[in-house]
Amino acid sequence: RATSDILATMPPKKEQAPVTTPEVEELVALPEDVGPVPDASFCLALGHLFGHSFLVQPSALPEDPEGACGDDAAPPAPIKFDPKAVLLERAKVPATSQEDLLAKSVMVVEREELQALAKTPEGEDMPLAYGLKQRLEKERVARSRAKINAARRKALEIAEAAKAVGDADEVGVEESAAGAGDHQPNEPAAAKADFLLLSTDYPANVEELQELAAEGLCSNEIIDVWAAVYLAGETIELGGADGKPLVDDDGLGDGPKLIPMETPELVRGFYDAVQGAPIGSELSGFAICTIRDSNTLCLAPEGSSSAEHVQGAVLSALGAEASSRKLFSTWVQAAQKISVPKIDPQKGDARLYHRMMSSIDTWHHDIPIFLHCLTEQVERTLGGEAQRHEDEVALGSLMEYLGVACDGVITDGGGSAPKPKLRYASAEQLSSPEQPQQQSTNDVDGGLLLPHLDRTVCNHHLGHRGGEAVINGESVAIIARRVLDEVVVAGSRRNGLPKDSNFSRAQRESLAYRLYPFAPQLSSAELEQLMLHHAFEELLSKAQPERRGKWCLVDRCFRERIPHDLVAQTLGAALQAEPLVSTAHVPRHDALLVALH
Fold first, then answer.
1. What is the pLDDT of residues 519-553, one digit of tens each?
2. All residues at 6 or more sequence positions from 152 whose CB lies less than 8 Å from its CB, including other chains
3. How far is residue 233's CA from residue 494's CA, in Å, rounded to a whole number?
4. I need a labelling partner for 544 at 20 to 30 A (CA). Which of 44, 124, 244, 487 fits?
5. What is the dihedral sign for C-alpha 572, 573, 579, 585?
6. CA–CA gap between residue 521 and residue 509 (Å, rounded)
7. Of 30, 149, 160, the residue nearest 99 (C-alpha)
8. What distance in Å separates the CA atoms of residue 547 and residue 464, rounded to the nearest whole number?
9. C-alpha closest to that of 61 among 297, 292, 221
10. Long-range contacts of range 378-381, CB-CB < 8 Å, 24 or more positions apart?
11. pTM of the predicted structure, to 2 decimals
12. pLDDT per residue over 360-384, tens digit each?
């Protein structure tokens, strides 16, 4: 009875007050025989959480191990899942010690706490942004020190373990200690934030957002990422008088109908404020971090809860955002800086830009092509060689035009000069005894015409009035023609055509005559020409479907017959401009259509 009286008179045990502010630990000292440990990277994020309460199907959750719901059973009613509330509930669990506090990855700060922190040492009231800055500075110093100490303790454990097995030479210990850090300089940083401080009800509008941006939290390297975390997703649509879920009627499944949730108005306001902020300002660095399909976060992996799953998704998204910003900042700092000279707009040269844009069909103009051409022009202008280079291009075009005109004057000749036997001769004919080289290299001054389609002969006759060009006693024209005879292009040696013709020549003529009675007002030649035009239009429409119906070749009323011996060099000269090449076989003529466009 005496013992019971003593227990009855004992005062109740006081509950331990929760710990809210972390304290800075002493730096763990390293012995001389332990190599230097690199400071562990630390990512601190400031977030403002937004989300919805979703209706999810219980069947989407882990299945009942006992199989209570059979195939014939009615589908269970939807349940509510609010990832925002789940995360906040986990973050608001109070910590009873400094170890528990530093172990938390997400914490919440309320407006009332910020009002208490928003005071100077003299007691002067300051904006809430000032109090939030003070809290973030304490969190960063304490938590980054705790992470560094953890890496150093791990290094000490490794060194002691190495000594215990008798393998504690200096180099080995240094390598083991260096591996204790969670991030080495040669390894990519893990895309996950170390700590997230959620400010739930501050800022409450765009004006408070601008007030917080004025504190310079990112520019002063107090935080690594500042973002509005929006948990977006889809919810089950209810309908009817009974309020049951509507069935998806798109034919892709028999599940309930899902509709996307509308973005909160405050998130839209933040987005507009960021888009309107000056480039490089603190507000322009504010991110809208959207986590899509947040309704599926209720499907937590085995061994973890929904709260842990939501927290992991949020920290991963913020870590990826911080990593991207760090990589971009590194790239900007390493980029070569140039000074843009002042250029008179009246004297600026944009011929390169216009020439590059005009070389591409307007149907294919898009933003990447525009930026590419514009960048090339800017680079050439900054180099100070834009005008000189374009003058050289224009002069080259002029010289090419004059060269073609010179060729035309020479090849068109004058008077009724006899037709040279060499005009469309092959390489064997050029070197045969029946057609001596004197006829193949007729003197230009003698009035004989050079074959203007045979570019090989023209090129090697121009500028050689005293005799043709010769290599090792053999005409260059003959050598070039021998090489060209071995070139295979579309149409030559039935390249691009079936091995055997579908119809004989007599059958093709018979098929052609079947069409003529349907167009008595046209001659057979005109009708055949129109049929070829139509075949080319179909070929070009297949090559460029976006221009189908816009090809019209009825105005192509001129044609030039090219001997088969000169097809290779004629197409070779045309392909130097690098056009698009499309081909099609026409059984009616047993011919190959070649379109350069």
1. 888 888 888 888 888 888 888 888 888 877 777 88
2. 27, 28, 30, 37, 180
3. 60
4. 487
5. negative
6. 20
7. 149
8. 48
9. 297
10. 380/352, 381/343, 381/348, 381/349
11. 0.55
12. 888 888 898 999 999 988 888 887 7
